[in-house]
Amino acid sequence: MAILERYDTGAVAHLTLNSPEKLNALSDEMLAALQAEFERLSSDTRIRAVILSGAGKVFCAGHDLKEMTAGRQAEDGGKAYFKDLFDRCARMMTSIQKLPQPVIAQVHGIATAAGCQLVASCDMAVAAEGTKFGVNGVNIGLFCSTPMVALSRNIPRKQAFEMLSTGQFIPADRAESLGLINKVVAPDQLETETLKLANLVAGKLGAAVKIGKEAFYNQIQMPLDQAYAYTGDVMVENMLYRDTAEGIAAFLDKRDPDWQQ
Questions:
Q1: Ordered per-residue pLDDT tens for the chain, 261 residues
Q2: pTM of the predicted protein model
Q3: Which residues is 170 bridged to in the sheet?
Q4: 142 partner at 20 to 30 Å CA-CA among 109, 151, 192, 210?
Q5: Domains delineated in the chain
């Protein structure tokens, strides 16, 4: 049984964290499997959207604390192991935003610590009613500093700091109102609604979504004038695509576009 399962429906890839006995913890094996799959997807032109879900009762409970405890047994107290662990985790998280395809988290149960970071790192997220989100490391004496990076880029800073410093969970409707997730749906509609969103994205011109996703994350870090200059250049490039010209012509002619990419 693979720790990360994949199957495709049309232009949508479905990835499932498949370690329910460990609450889909981001173990060394899970991090490696995710990294490898994201690298494969980065060059898979057939796929235009990705859904990331978890098997069993929860989406993801964060890092594997048993592995982290074992890592402390090294002569240096685990310093080298922990540095490597958090570097590998950061690489995997940033790989999501570097993918040409939008990634949608399909969340249920709980998403805590690095599991909440995983949701925040995805481009979009749909959650089932009753799902809880938290960055709870402070409860065991470990401030969630790396999850903080993604969380604080999703929700307002005071609310992010409250979650980080109190270790309390927030419910799905609160996560939606803060902007951590896109929508909350009934549990029996989670799969259907997430796939509906993925198919909607996958139906767009892949080359346009790819260039747009990259530009989105680049410009958001820039000063206003620089962002406009950069995105203007991106739109010029996009306008020169053959399929963009076809899309405009099809709109004017009131017909479906004949896209080749």
A1: 899 999 999 999 999 999 999 999 999 999 999 999 999 999 999 999 999 999 999 999 999 999 999 988 888 888 999 999 999 999 999 999 999 999 999 999 999 999 999 999 999 999 999 999 999 999 999 999 999 999 999 999 999 999 999 999 999 999 999 999 999 999 999 999 999 999 999 999 999 999 999 999 999 999 999 999 999 999 999 999 998 988 999 899 999 998 887
A2: 0.95
A3: 133
A4: 109
A5: 4-202 (3.90.226.10), 206-253 (1.10.12.10)
